Structures are given as structure tokens and as C-alpha cells.
Amino acid sequence: MNYLEEYYNNYDEEGRLLSKHGQVEYLTTMKYIKECLEGISEPNILEVGAGTGRYSVTLAKQGLKVTAVELIKHNLDILKSKLDGTEPINAIQGNALDLSMFEDDTFDMTMLLGPMYHLFTREDKLKALGEAVRVTKPGGFILVAYCMNEPTVVQFCFGADNLQRVLEENLLTSDWHCKSEPKERFELVRIEDIESYNAEFPIKRVKLVASDGATNYMRPKIDSMDDDTFAKWVDYHFTICERQDLIGASHHTLDILRKE
């Protein structure tokens, strides 16, 4: 069993997504998924790295045609357990690095909402993004989620008193870019890294969005909010989530691309 399988076999991903702080990322991502799908009749959607199906199952239950590809069997089993057999979804085990089971120009929207978190080399990131671009129709959308560098430096290194360990294990560059390894499970990027990946493909950015903004800096406070206050927090977040001066401070970003 590798580090990633061990992590997801023992981590309550469902609980995170259903918490108030987890809902901010979910609600933001769904907002922009719906925006991208406007005007597309009977869209054909692919989610690569579908996890436990928070997005794929929701979209399928809305009657949209979805193909969900997930690497970790534990996650895939949870995803399938949510289905009653009437949803137009095909859920299969597969790898973001090899989508050869799909032909070129097949999907109106391809979503990579998790794979980039766990790919540790530029080569693998480009392979995953390239496969997503390849299977997307010209004019179609590619939505890619990333974990950002600075929140980890602020919260994990300094806030959680891990700086000495990180320095001893040589996990920081001289300009404070995290150097993740598979045992750390998550790969962290900066905006310039994302832009360098995009430059390799015939795609154009539509928007780069802060998926959760300041939310994860104050998880206990967010989770303890009453529903009215939480609704106002989400409204505030939606108001500022496209502000480019704040993007790098978000724990997660959503890069919305269009294939040329």
C-alpha cells in the first residue's frame, strides 16, 4: 500500500467535505462548474480523481452524464455506494496519468479536482494536464484544483511548529517553496508554477479562483457559525474569490481553462 492509499483509507474525506469549512470549497467549485455548463445542452462530463463522488455523484443525480475515474479503490467504493443505479454515471478505477481508455475530443468538461494535489514531479503534472486537455473537446472546459504553497508555510511550518522538522528534512527552498515528497502526500504550488504548466498546452485561462480563501485559516470559527452567519461568510467569500491579489493565500485554487 502506498502513502496515498494509506492516507485515504484512514482519512474521513466525507466528514471534511460535509463540514462547514469544507462546504466553502465545495460550494465555490460547484458555482463555477455551473457557470461553465451554462449554454451546453446535454454536456458530457469527465471527473478524473473523483474521490468519494462529492461532485460526480451530485452532477449525475442532477441528470448530467458523468464519467468518474478514481485511483483509490476505497474512495471508489464509497462513491458507488451513493448510487441507486438510475444515475447516468460510469464510475471506474483509473489513473490521471493515463486516460487512454478515452478518445481525443470526447468531453465538454474535464475536471481534475484532486490529482494535482498528489503529483510530485513537473513531468507527472504535465502528463495529467495533457491527458485532460487531450480528451476535452475544442472549446470545452478543463477545471484544475491545486494546493497552494503559502498557506502551508504559514500554518504548517510556523502555526503548527513544524518549521524545525521541515528545515532539517530539507523540505524548503531558499525562497520558501515547499519541496514535497510522496510521504508528505500533498504537493504545493505557486501561481507561477500553474502558469508554467498551462503554457505547455493549447488552452486559455478563463479564471483563476480562490476555492476557500481565508476559510481554512479559521476552521473552528467557521464550523461553529450558525447558518445565517455562515451564509454571509459564503457571500463574502464569493465576492472576493476572484481577486487576484488574494489568490496565493488561499489553501486551494481552481484554475478554469478552455481548450483552444
Please explain how this structure is put together.
Strands 1, 2, 3, 4, 5, 6, 7 and 8 form an 8-stranded mixed beta sheet that branches. β2 (65-70), α5 and β3 (89-93) form a beta-alpha-beta unit. The protein has 11 helices and 8 strands. It starts with a helix and ends with a strand. It has a single domain, classed as Rossmann fold (3-Layer(aba) Sandwich), CATH 3.40.50. The model has no long low-confidence stretch (mean pLDDT 94). 39% of the residues are buried. The protein is an alpha/beta fold and 260 residues long. Helices cover 40% and strands 20% of the residues.
Task: Provide tags for this entry.
8-stranded mixed β-sheet; 260 residues; 40% helix; single chain; alpha/beta
How would you summarize the topology of this molecule?
Layout lengths: L2 H8 L2 H6 L1 H18 L6 E5 L7 H6 L3 E6 L2 H9 L7 E5 L13 E6 L9 H14 E13 H11 L3 H6 L19 E2 L1 H8 L4 E8 L8 H5 L3 H14 L11 E8 L1
Q: What Rg do the Cα atoms give?
A: 18 Å
Biggest sheet, in brief?
8 strands, mixed
> How many DSSP H or I helices?
11
* Oligomeric status: single chain
The level 1 CATH classification is Alpha Beta
- Can you count the beta strands? 8
